Amino acid sequence: MFDLNAVQAAIRESGFDGWLLYDFRGQNILAQRVVGVAEKKLSRRWFYFVPATGEPKKLAHVIEPASLDHLPGTKKTYRRWQELEAEVGWLVAGTKVVAMEYSPRNANPYIGRVDAGTVELVRSFGCEVVGSGDLIQLFESVWDADQEKSHFEAAKLCREAYDVAFAFIASEIKAKGKVMETAVQARIMKHFADNKMTTYSPPIIGVGPHSGDPHFDTSLATDMPIEKGSFVLIDLWAKMDRPRAVYADYTRTAFVGDTVPEKIAKVFNVVAAGRDAGIKKVKDAFAAKQPLRGWEVDNATRDVIEKAGYGEQYTHRTGHNIGQEVHGNGAHIDGLETRDDRRIIPRTCFSIEPGIYLPEFGVRSEVDVYIDAAGTVHVTGGELQTEVHKIIV
User: Fold this and answer.
1) Which CATH class is domain 4-140?
2) What is the pTM of this model?
């Protein structure tokens, strides 16, 4: 539910004169969620301006005049495009700095949801348009109590999925000498279904060279067997199958045999050390009540891997925000693909998942980190993986 007092307090704290929320046919899902119209499937442009103080203003098309009626404020409607442009001037009249879902140079495409033309239109009325990234976090990425509960439920079941998968691999190899990647994928999906979970796509099961592809697509077209001597990476994500539930997302690795090859163990240890450095950065900052931004955690993790000589083989950011989508819209743990300057704030969750990818195999170790309302840091998904899991057959 839209809370005007909370939104205006956040706008004032950010130093903006107002927040102009805008959407056309779902291009800005962030604005849709903030104002509560994500389910309405509106077909015309709408604007909602929230000033730092005072009464909000609404602008809707005449064929959808009630689209924003659930929100406080004065309403106007438009029919012609000339009227729309003139009324945008009415919306932002008297303001100098207006936040929108805009990212300068598209440095953060997760926030850049407003088209350049609309930004130009707003600027034509003498406004400076700035990014609303930290505002979006507060009203889109912060979890409520039910969402927090759903994450911990999903985290427990996702951790159990690894026990299910590793036991399935062992039993199939003992019985048949091998098991295919897709069969393990199907077994995990059954575990999710049995526990009333859902996911936007099936897990990654990558054997040998497939594990060296960070976004390998497990499928019948590329299916490989897991057998004695195989190294396997499993990346899985799911959430409880109910409205507004949020995801859990983890990656673990295993070797079929009682002795993990030295090179694999060495790479795993570097990845795990990077992961732990990222976790420590978060814990230390919140314990000291110091502000922390996504790129800083990425740097802490990446430094470990670069110093070990694997910087070029660490090809992606360290982590992503987690919400109702597995890749959520809050601060990402990224100083590589983007420089995410958004603050990491309480009641948000993100992954820490460094990886090293070689032609013959790749290692990734992924955990989720949740900051509760008190600022306590929770690493979810069970105990940290401290060595490559051995599947004994």
Assistant:
1) alpha beta
2) 0.92
